[in-house]
């Protein structure tokens, strides 16, 4: 009987170890950073997966709505969320990795239209602005009650309404908006009619976050951050970026960003 119990315990160990080591990552579609429709689920997930691999950790990713992703992480049904912005409130319940990327939030307009935008929220008050319902632009943008906001189900929907002249402006992430203008069939034909305005309303760093209440939360992030260092040192991160068609200049810039953060 004792031998049988020992045998059962031994054969069950690999499965237990694997289940503890495999990270279940969740996030929303956020191209060109990560998306279920991108090769390798996007360059930033490819980097994340490779960093974990250096620590002997496998990973899987699920794409869902942002609100559901947060709930899954809070309930500890997922290991981590990829691509979170920093917020003071969120920092109370989640631990943050080192910064992994940068996203710029701001304003899109029709090229033919005249808009008196000087970078301030106040200069946007005369205009109707489309924004994806769950998207975060900036704290000042969110708290301003004088803005005429039209909520939409997605950034492509907002950009479509802009092209049709039904709204004056769109607030959203520059990189994501430009991606959709190139790849979304409904708005790609009119992509040259839309431009992004300077300056940005906000610049956000993207992080991997884990629930503070989860098992070995700090240790998990320590391993992940260490994995990023290994990718930098062994040159693997440059290979990943090259695979996703980044120029040598952008690869160097990204590696320097990681080293500085």
Structural features, described:
The chain has 261 residues and is of the alpha/beta class. The protein has two domains: 2-102 and 204-260, D-Maltodextrin-Binding Protein, domain 2, CATH 3.40.190.10; 104-203, 3-Layer(aba) Sandwich (D-Maltodextrin-Binding Protein, domain 2). Helices cover 42% and strands 21% of the residues. It has eleven helices and ten strands. Strands 1, 2, 3, 4, 5, 6, 7, 8, 9 and 10 form a ten-stranded mixed sheet that branches. Strand 6, helix 5 and strand 7 (148-152) form a beta-alpha-beta unit. The longest helix is centred in the first third of the chain and has 20 residues, at 2-21. It is globular, with a radius of gyration of 21 Å.
In short:
By secondary structure, the chain is α/β, with parallel strands linked by helices. It has helices spanning 2-21, 43-53, 66-74, 88-91, 139-143, 155-163, 174-183, 185-188, 217-233, 236-243, 248-260; strands at residues 23-27, 59-63, 80-84, 94-96, 101-110, 128-132, 148-152, 169-173, 194-196, 202-211. The protein is 42% helix and 21% strand.
CATH architecture of the largest domain: 3-Layer(aba) Sandwich
Poorly predicted ranges? 1-19
- What is the count of structural domains? 2
Number of beta strands = 10
Topology, pairings included?
Blueprint: H1 2-21, E1 23-27, H2 43-53, E2 59-63, H3 66-74, E3 80-84, H4 88-91, E4 94-96, E5 101-110, E6 128-132, H5 139-143, E7 148-152, H6 155-163, E8 169-173, H7 174-183, H8 185-188, E9 194-196, E10 202-211, H9 217-233, H10 236-243, H11 248-260
Parallel strand pairs: 1-2, 1-3, 6-7, 6-8
Antiparallel strand pairs: 3-10, 4-10, 5-8, 5-9, 5-10
